[in-house]
Amino acid sequence: MFAAYAARIDRDQPLNGLELGERPEPEERSGWSTVTVKAASLNHHDLWSLRGVGLGDESLPMILGCDAAGIDEDGNEVVIHSVIGQSGHGVGPREPRSILTERYQGTFAEKVAVPTWNLLPKPQELSFEEAACLPTAWLTAYRMLFTNAGVRPGDSVLVQGAGGGVATAAIVLGAAAGLRVLATSRDEAKRKRAVDLGAEGAYEPGERLPRRVDAVIETVGAATWSHSVKSLKPGGTLVISGATSGPSPKSAELNRIFFLELKVVGSTMGSKEELEDLLSFCAARGVRPVIDSVLPLDRAREGFEKMAGGELFGKVVLTV
């Protein structure tokens, strides 16, 4: 079957390790199902895999891709929850949780095998391309907002780095849920797009905001950390799920954190139940993932290049 896969690890030039070509089809395995992939979406996780983060040489070649929607062996339209081993279903009882492509072949292929427990029905209201965007970036944003930030309709939220997958999802989901969303971006066009998607205002990184916020959604890391902490109301919550600009800010702002009794919460992906809720929310409220571009699988390299260059707004989707 045709697939996009990591053939080698290159920490400095990750795309040098990306290959497109034939790979073996999934083998039958007890408790697992094979899904015929209709659409899959890119995440920064795929680039990090090519750099060797969470993926070693001993696991190569590894088909990339965490997110997908497709058709299972019984003809059902399904969405894949990409956290494997979360409950022990389909894996060993002592196996720690992982994300597809850290241990098992991924979704950038004509077919993918996952534990049957990891399959959820695809809502008819969502296309395969839309549904394929949800299991990683959009699920991460959903958990950050509604589980870890604990915000309620009417609360204010700052989303750093508009344009990235998680940040874009947080803007759309937050606005749909009645939050007052502010956003930042270095790019003027991305700031305008953030407002079009529901943000009340969009600002330069580090720019003084019109008011302090109840929560901050942080995925940028070092470059925006100080601004994120300073933007919070006393008792506010900073939720972080990534650090694309680096993990070591110049100032940790510890004095401000303890004096204002701020909360800093780490967040990674989400549960199957949260993904089920996210799918239902999107179907019921008419919320749709923001898609930057749709490419056939054999043009996957173009999608990777676009993501690596930071030239996108929303998700890149690959169709099979």
Largest sheet: 7 strands, mixed
State the share of residues found in helices, binned by percent. 25-40%
Poorly predicted runs are: none
What form results from the Cα inertia axes? Answer: globular
How is this structure best summarized?
With about 325 residues, the protein is an alpha/beta fold. It has helices spanning about 45-50, 130, 135-150, 165-175, 190-195, 225-230, 255-260, 270-285, 300-310; strands spanning about 1-5, 20, 30-40, 60-65, 65-70, 75-80, 85, 100, 110-115, 120, 155-160, 180-185, 200-205, 215-220, 230-240, 265, 290-295, 315-320. The strands form 4 sheets. Strands 3, 5, 6, 9, 10, 17 and 18 form a 7-stranded mixed beta sheet that branches.
What are its keywords?
six-stranded parallel sheet, 9 helices, globular, alpha/beta, 320 residues
What do these coordinates show?
- The chain is an alpha/beta fold and 320 residues long.
- 26% of the residues lie in helices and 27% in strands.
- The protein has nine helices and 18 strands.
- Strands 3, 5, 6, 9, 10, 17 and 18 form a seven-stranded mixed β-sheet that branches.
- Helix 3 crosses helix 4 and helix 3 crosses helix 8.
- The longest helix is centred in the middle third of the chain and has 15 residues.
- The protein is globular and about 55 Å long.
- The termini are close together.
